[in-house]
Amino acid sequence: MKKIATIFLFISLLFETLNGVKAGFLCINGTLLANSSYGQNRNSVFSSLASQVITNRGFYNASLNSVHAVALCRRGYERQACINCVEKAIQLIKNICSNGVESFNWNGDDADHVSCLVRTTNHSTFQKLDLGPATLDESPLNIGSSAKNMTLFRQEWEATVNRTLEAATVNTSASVLKYYGVANAEFVEFPNVYMMMQCTPDITSGECKSCLEECVTYFRDVSWGKQGGTVGRPSCLFRWDLYPFYGAFANITRVPAPPGPLIPQAHAISVTSLKGKIIAIVVVPTVINLFVLLGLIRAYRQIKKSKEETSVWTGEDCISDSQFMLRFDLSMVLLATGDFSPETKIGQGGFGSVYKGILPSGQEIAVKRLTRGSGQGEIEFRNEVSLLTRLQHRNLVKLLGFCSEGEEDILIYEHVPNSSLDHFIFNEEKRVLLTWNVRYKIIEGVARGLLYLHEDSQLRIIHRDLKASNVLLDAEMNPKVSDFGMARLFNMDQTRGVTRRRVGTFGYMAPEYIKNGRLSAKTDVYSFGVVLLEMITGQSNNNYFEAMGLPAYAWKCWVAGEAASIIDPVLSRTPTNEILRFIHIGLLCVQENVAKRPTMSLVIQWLGSDTIVIPLPTTAAFTTTELHKIDAMDQAKGEAGTLSLNKLSITELSPR
């Protein structure tokens, strides 16, 4: 009778899988007897585990004699759903792992919008990272696509992994369930991808990241090509699918759940040896037929859904059809920003306002709401989506996604808490916070971001509007280059170009670009040199603009042997020779002779070494007079793309 009951339990588990259950179960056999003290103590712990999880806000660590148990629910859980999930996991452990000393069960039910963990051991696991063994639950269906398309899909899948991993491990939430992240990615040629990661909150952020990375690696190595999967480890869980699950994506319309795996992994459950001929003859064919039927229904609906969504805004509107895009619902953006309430507004740009928001996952975001009806704002919008979705670097601001509904064009970025560099370097009170070490880190970080754009990314990009206000600072004062609305995309074998209309900000634009429209990576090098000199002096280039400009003034002092006179007094305790070397590098960047300006790779070498011999600079650019002449000429001709001090004007875009 016991064997028959176990078989029926196994059959019920299979049909639960068909109804959307995602479970990772592991039982480690021991010498536990049903009437042993360990078993009795474990039952005692189990009796109050579900209620204690609720009392302790979603996570509870219990011990009784030699029994140690951990219970955890997904962030945002509903009270009763969490209780039900924990109780179901406990029952599975009792029934399937009655003789096992150790077990863990990542139990998830899509229908109940919940996931949870219950783990038991005969030793304390609190505040200890445990990576194994792992459980794997994969979709029986393959993605199925050409090698070229799968390469693109994998690139964007990996980008979604990185976003989810960061949200799960760098979350500043005060919640007990602090290690939790979700992300969804909308592809043009592929179904949408939904991803979730979670760790037990008793380990460190670094340990959580290691655990999740191990889960991702395990899926890549074992199940890549499947339409979703779940990898569970005692300390963390990673799941992704082609539909919103667990209620983690509540603001996204749900679609039918795909079928689960045929049977649990052999290493993940201890009762597989009990299947027998009855299961093989009766259950397996039935399950296979159900899998095939559900798979066909799901594939049809997903293809239909993908076509409907891509018809809203196709790749021809903004980027190539193969380009990955992440779309946010307007309702989610409104919820995150309190309907764009004035209290959440943190800035005003040339093309709209910027708001701080908080996603349901707890992740903080910066939301740029472009001015309605602004043709130039629409160009900036499309340009940023086109470029930033294909750029990943620690010194570039991350575009998390966009929203384009009705008249609303919205860009969603990672939130960078310390605002922009100009709020520090040009502020008398805040500038004292910029020690030499901090300024060095910012200068080097900006240089590395530009090097990535010019040489190391899959694209060749000229930023065209580098300035202090477009350098954002994170919580650790790491710089992130932002605002790619005017960036110019070059072919990989193209080094320079000519444009009839110039865009950017006076004082930061290279003279050859202003006078002749000549554009190259050296255009950004000039802008970098201006920003570097501003970092040294603590003064804005605008303060010198009406006279000769900061580059020209610094050059004049250099020639007179008085370069030290321009150093910010805040840096009085820093060795003058080191700062003079940076002035030297800055002057090399702002040379009027384009050919003599260094590349960003060379700049980084110079910044990092005081033993490399640096060439002497030649005359810095004197551009103020020419700027006003060109501005007046453009106005006389009635051209739309006139330049203006500190106002960004987009007149031409050519990503190709």
TrEMBL record:
Family matches, as SUPFAM superfamilies: Protein kinase-like (PK-like)
GO terms, molecular function: ATP binding; protein serine/threonine kinase activity
UniProtKB keywords: ATP-binding, Glycoprotein, Kinase, Membrane, Nucleotide-binding, Phosphoprotein, Receptor, Repeat, Serine/threonine-protein kinase, Signal, Transferase, Transmembrane, Transmembrane helix
Domain Protein kinase: 340-613
GO biological process terms, semicolon-separated: immune response; response to abscisic acid; signal transduction
InterPro entries listed in its UniProt record: GNK2, GNK2_sf, Kinase-like_dom_sf, Prot_kinase_dom, Protein_kinase_ATP_BS, Ser-Thr/Tyr_kinase_cat_dom, Ser/Thr_kinase_AS
Stated name of the protein: BnaC03g29910D protein
